């Protein structure tokens, strides 16, 4: 979808483990920050798209989570659309909000992603991830994942996912398959969280701000071989919000050098011909580039879905930032790092691995980071001269591939 929506303001909380904070508290902080940044009042909001994935499981709040959050801020009388779409929840809310502005239906739309994953019962937290699949066919999923693991020489046993996200088993198969096909090493996997830790150290809202080395990553506790704990995105809470406005409203607000959403492509996987995998990435990424009239060489800064170290390697390739099979070597060489001399910086926020991954908040947190990068407001992690940014955010797993994916391109 080509869009002409303009980001007037953005805000987000720190990401982390906040057992005492409520969804209303977290989302309210992000919304208030976005309003202040935009110079708008609650009365200016004409519609709200509220993204949350886990409230029903973690807090018991179902059916009206968005309305509950907004009423706590005195916001009512407007359309409120609750959005749930796995890890792509927030980017889906943004996609729909941008569509409404582009269609001319509203001048000011709020898009929010907010989440609590921290719970004293860790099994309940991990059940959120195990629910992001076809739960009517868990035997089929177990056979699929176990088969993938055995095909690359791993022991298949997703029953162990009760004490971890089952997606880590899936990511482990992807990592080993890439290692076998292209010679990717564990050191290159470890270079991903090491690089992102250097970025996240400069992000005051990141869940983890300590700098870690390749050696420390490799020595950390193993989750599923070849992945260690720092190679896996952490559990956390947080919220992010943006206000999208029309061109008319942007002129009224005096925005003269706007950050625009020029393309937002949302889709799902499908049943591919036998032997074909991950077509959804190539399809949607290609469409996003086409609709924005850009290519990979035009992108200055990327926030991609590094739910694991192997994810960043694969998605760097999917986005065309390097040739297929070269993702590990490019990252190890520092070419996607701040100051690394490459064309495009990847995950200057620290990515999911260091910034954190509260499922329903992640997609808009990526957008807030890119909005600030393109506005030149990112301090020590600023990508010099950034004018074009891309966010890639996906989640869920059906029949061997990501269930939902959203690719968003921003330009200033």
From TrEMBL:
InterPro entries: Thiolase, Thiolase-like, Thiolase_C_2, Thiolase_N. Keywords: Transferase. One of its GO terms (molecular function) is acetyl-CoA C-acyltransferase activity. Residues 6-210 form the Thiolase N-terminal domain. The keyword Iron does not apply. Residues 287-403 form the Thiolase C-terminal domain. It comes from the Bacteria. It holds the Pfam family Thiolase_N. This is Acetyl-CoA acetyltransferase.
């Amino acid at each position: 979808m080509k869009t002409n929506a303009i980001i007037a303001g953005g805000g987000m909380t720190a990401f982390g483990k906040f057992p005492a904070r409520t969804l209303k508290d977290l989302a309210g902080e992000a919304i208030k920050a976005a309003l202040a940044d935009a110079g708008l009042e609650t009365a200016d909001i004409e519609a709200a798209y509220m993204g949350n994935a886990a409230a029903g499981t973690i807090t018991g709040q179902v059916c009206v989570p968005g309305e509950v959050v907004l009423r706590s801020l005195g916001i009512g009388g407007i359309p409120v659309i609750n959005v749930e779409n796995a890890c792509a929840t927030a980017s889906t809310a943004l996609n729909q909000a941008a569509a409404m502005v582009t269609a001319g239906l509203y001048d000011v739309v709020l898009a929010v992603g907010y989440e609590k994953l921290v719970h004293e019962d860790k099994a309940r937290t991990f059940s959120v991830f195990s629910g992001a699949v076809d739960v009517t066919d868990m035997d089929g999923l177990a056979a699929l994942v176990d088969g993938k693991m055995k095909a690359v020489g791993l022991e298949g046993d997703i029953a162990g996912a009760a004490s971890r996200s089952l997606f880590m088993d899936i990511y482990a198969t992807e990592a080993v398959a890439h290692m076998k096909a292209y010679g990717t090493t564990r050191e290159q996997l470890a270079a991903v969280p090491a690089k992102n830790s250097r970025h996240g150290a400069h992000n005051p809202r990141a869940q983890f701000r300590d700098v870690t080395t390749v050696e420390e990553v490799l020595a950390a506790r193993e989750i599923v071989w070849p992945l260690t704990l720092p190679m896996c995105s952490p559990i956390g809470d947080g919220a992010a919000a943006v206000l999208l406005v029309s061109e008319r409203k942007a002129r009224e607000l005096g925005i003269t050098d706007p950050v625009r959403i020029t393309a937002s492509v949302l889709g799902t996987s499908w049943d591919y011909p036998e032997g074909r995998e991950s077509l959804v990435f190539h399809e949607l990424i290609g469409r996003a580039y086409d609709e924005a009239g850009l290519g990979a060489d035009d992108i200055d800064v990327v926030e991609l879905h590094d739910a694991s170290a192997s994810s960043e390697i694969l998605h760097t390739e999917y986005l065309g930032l390097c040739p297929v099979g070269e993702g590990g070597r490019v990252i190890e060489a520092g070419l996607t790092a701040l100051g690394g001399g490459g064309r495009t910086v990847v995950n200057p926020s620290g990515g999911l691995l260091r910034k954190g991954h509260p499922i329903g908040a992640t997609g808009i947190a990526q957008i807030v980071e890119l909005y600030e990068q393109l506005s030149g407001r990112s301090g020590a992690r600023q990508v010099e001269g950034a004018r074009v940014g891309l966010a890639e955010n996906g989640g869920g797993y059906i029949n061997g591939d990501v269930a939902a994916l959203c690719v968003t391109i921003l330009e200033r």
